[in-house]
Design brief:
Blueprint lengths: L21 H5 L5 E2 L11 H13 L9 H15 L8 E4 L2 H12 L5 E4 L6 H8 L3 E4 L3 E3 L2 E3 L2 H9 L3 E7 L11 H13 L3 E5 L20 H5 L1 E5 L2 H4 L7 E4 L3 H14 L6 H13 L1 H25 L4 E3 L6 E5 L7 H11 L2 E2 L1 E2 L11 E5 L4 H16 L2
Parallel strand pairs: 1-13, 3-4, 3-7, 7-8, 8-9
Antiparallel strand pairs: 2-10, 5-6, 9-10, 11-12, 12-15, 14-15
Helix pairs in contact: 2-11, 3-11, 4-5, 4-10, 6-7, 12-14
Bound molecules: pyridoxal-5'-phosphate (PLP).
The site of pyridoxal-5'-phosphate (PLP) has 13 residues, from α4.
Length: about 400
């Protein structure tokens, strides 16, 4: 191994959303944070070097992404995902969440419906509701420990008057599914039959466990490409969320023009110059680092599963096919949301993400844990959980 993912790095006092001001945020002291989706690892050394080099230039004026930026993105998707993107399809963004808000504003009117598949990344719902649109839920179905889509329900929801968009989470946060080509084809066929535009949030697409493959929605056919918008970024993959560099892939010139008009109306400009540098370095040189990261995450996942099976077997692990987010089922304990939250925060002194935030009732009794940390941190967290559950 060239990279050490077990080194503990003190992130406190760095303005870290995950690590700073935890007492105030979680109302308890001594909290160990495994909540927000970033990683406790240094980014690849080539990224750090590129940022230092650019910082040392000393001039930080207005920026525009150079052709190398677009080339780095298109090369990455061709190499890692066998998907050929034309540079002109790429529209930069400062993040996927801001982009989702802008997409909703562009492609729907107030009061119109946007389909989501709960339990799902909760800022989808906030973006829809804050913009005065309607959340239309097409809940996932849990079969044993595997989540599947409900196509009959999707068909009904897509047919409802005033439903315009579907926001697909692919791979899915928090249930960790990597949707197959067949599953995605069925979603597309249903949506397109009802003229629903598909926004495919693929921010987790690089974090795929060994032997598996992410299928980009837009790669499935010309129709899928032209009737969808893909959201992507190096931020989850290489731990760059603070640098705010993300991309939309909008192959349809008509959709791209409409989206660009929204951006122009808000006066939004180019991404942060350090984000540009980091993206280029990561996509060009980060592959070996990413492969080792995935090996570390696979080790953490195996450790978590074994620990839980041996010590707290009433907790069920929904095994992710992708992402470093693990969906844990505590329903066997029969605790309501408040009691589960107290147990996690006050007894275990852990910051996880409460399942009901991803949708209620779909996420009730679940917690999402982020395993992108050194093994020792994960072990500490699991022991805290074991001790707290012993008292239930
Ligand atoms: C599915 C999904 N989309 C978007 C984001 C956040 O994207 P950004 O930081 O680019 O706004 C996250 C972060 O956890 C996520 O899980």
């Amino acid at each position: 191994m060239r990279f050490d993912f077990d080194r503990i790095i003190d992130r406190t006092g760095t303005g870290s959303l995950k690590w700073d001001r935890l007492d105030a945020r979680f109302g308890a002291t001594g909290i160990l944070p495994l909540w927000v989706a970033d990683m406790d690892f240094e980014s690849p050394p080539e990224v750090v070097a590129a940022l230092v080099r650019r910082a040392q230039h000393g001039v930080y004026g207005y920026t525009t992404p150079m052709p190398e930026y677009y080339q780095a993105v298109t090369d990455w998707f061709a190499r890692r995902h066998f998907w050929r993107i034309a540079p002109e399809w790429i529209v930069t963004a400062t993040g996927i969440v801001p982009a989702l808000n802008l997409l909703i504003q562009t492609f729907t009117k107030p009061g119109e419906g946007v389909i989501v598949q709960k339990p799902v990344y909760h800022p989808f719902m906030s973006a829809i509701e804050r913009n005065g649109r309607r959340v239309v839920n097409n809940p996932l179905r849990s079969e044993g420990n595997v989540y599947r889509m409900d196509y009959a329900d999707l068909e009904r929801k897509a047919a409802e008057p005033g439903t315009r968009l579907l926001i697909l989470c692919s791979p899915h946060n928090p249930v960790g599914r990597l949707w197959t080509a067949e599953e995605l084809e069925r979603v597309g066929d249903i949506c397109f039959a009802h003229d629903i535009l598909v926004i495919s949030d693929e921010i987790h697409c690089d974090l795929v466990y060994e032997g598996r493959r992410h299928v980009p929605f837009g790669s499935l056919s010309e129709e899928f490409l032209l009737r969808s918008i893909t959201c992507t970024a190096p931020s989850k993959t290489f731990n760059l969320a603070g640098l705010q560099a993300a991309n939309l892939v909008i192959a349809s010139p008509e959709l791209r023009d409409r989206y660009r008009r929204t951006i122009a109306c808000l006066g939004l400009g180019a991404p942060n110059l350090f984000g540009i540098e980091a993206l280029i370095a990561a996509y060009r040189h980060g592959e070996e680092w990413l492969d080792e990261l995935m090996a570390h995450l696979a080790g953490n996942l195996a450790f978590l599963k074994e620990f839980i099976a041996a010590n707290v077997p009433r907790v069920k692990v929904v095994e992710p096919e992708a992402t470093y987010l693990v969906w844990l089922d505590f329903r066997d304990y029969g605790l309501d949301a408040e009691a589960l939250q107290r147990l996690v925060r006050e007894r275990a002194r852990l910051a996880l993400v409460e399942g009901h935030l991803f949708g209620s009732p779909e996420g009730d009794g679940f917690e999402r844990v982020n395993i992108a940390c050194p093994r020792a941190t994960l072990e500490d967290a699991l022991k805290r959980m074991q001790d707290a559950l012993a008292s239930v």
